[in-house]
């Protein structure tokens, strides 16, 4: 059953962060979708789910990727969108250092061009090395880059923190990166 929940969770991630049209789902400008529409759309595509299963996925997702509205009638992904949504984030002061996990094969490009959001709305950063390491290891041999977030903030760069505690930023120039 747990494996099925992970598969369904990955499909929900695809739908809410990248391709709502996969199940003919409509997101509002803030990324919210009607829970009933998500469930109905998934079932029409052969992805058997009900509200209890959806609640279990939201509650147990190890990355806390999703959130319900207060009345549980809407759902959205907390961050990681490749489609344009306004997550209503407020700029906040970051810690002095944040960390970005990547694969070793990406280092040359990052050293040359900095960290780019590429197809996402933000660059994703972590407060701790372990989380960054785990993120990087999904793409190959992991490498952790230290980000001089305090210096960036002092120089006018903005940071946000998502509901699931992922730090978000615009593209980050190489001068703010430490390769250890």
Largest sheet, spatial ordering of strands? 1-3-2
Question: What's the SSE pattern?
Answer: HEHHEEEHEHEHEEE
Structural class: alpha+beta
The amount of helix comes to 25-40%
Number of domains: 2
Quickly name the level 1 CATH class of the largest domain: Alpha Beta
Question: What's the CATH architecture name of the largest domain?
Answer: Alpha-Beta Barrel
Q: How many E-type strands?
A: 9
Give the uncertain stretches in residue-range form. none
Q: State the major sheet.
A: 3 strands, antiparallel
Strand % is 15-25%
Which helices and strands appear, and what pairs or packs with what?
Layout: H1 2-17, E1 33-34, H2 35-44, H3 51-60, E2 66-68, E3 74-77, E4 98-103, H4 107-113, E5 123-125, H5 129-137, E6 142-147, H6 149-154, E7 159-161, E8 167-169, E9 177-179
Helix pairs in contact: 1-3
Descriptive notes:
This protein has 180 residues and is of the alpha+beta class. It has 2 domains: 2-77, RNA 2'-phosphotransferase, Tpt1/KptA family, N-terminal domain (Arc Repressor Mutant, subunit A), CATH 1.10.10.970; 98-179, ADP-ribosylation fold (Alpha-Beta Barrel), CATH 3.20.170.30. It contains 6 helices and 9 strands, in the order H-E-H-H-E-E-E-H-E-H-E-H-E-E-E. A hairpin with a 5-residue loop joins strand 2 and strand 3 (74-77). Helix 1 packs across helix 3 (51-60). The longest helix has 16 residues, at 2-17. The protein is elongated and about 50 Å long. It starts with a helix and ends with a strand.
Gist?
The chain is of the alpha+beta class and 180 residues long.
Question: Could you list some keywords that capture this structure?
Answer:
three-stranded antiparallel beta sheet, 2 domains, 180 residues, ADP-ribosylation fold, Arc Repressor Mutant, subunit A, elongated, alpha+beta, single chain
């Amino acid at each position: 059953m747990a494996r099925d929940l992970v598969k369904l969770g990955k499909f929900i991630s695809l739908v809410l962060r990248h391709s709502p049209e996969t199940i003919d789902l409509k997101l509002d400008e803030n990324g919210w979708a009607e829970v009933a529409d998500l469930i109905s759309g998934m079932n029409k595509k052969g992805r058997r789910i009900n509200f209890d299963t959806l609640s279990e996925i939201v509650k147990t997702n190890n990355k806390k990727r999703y959130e319900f509205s207060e009345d549980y009638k809407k759902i959205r992904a907390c961050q990681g969108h490749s489609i344009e949504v306004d997550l209503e984030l407020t700029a906040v002061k970051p810690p002095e250092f944040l960390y970005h996990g990547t694969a070793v094969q990406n280092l040359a490009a990052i050293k040359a061009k900095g960290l780019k959001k590429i197809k996402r709305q933000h660059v994703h950063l972590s407060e701790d090395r372990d989380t960054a390491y785990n993120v990087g290891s999904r793409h190959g041999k992991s490498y952790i880059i230290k980000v001089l977030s305090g210096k960036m903030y002092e120089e006018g760069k903005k940071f946000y923190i998502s509901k699931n505690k992922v730090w978000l930023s615009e593209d980050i120039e190489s001068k703010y990166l430490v390769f250890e």
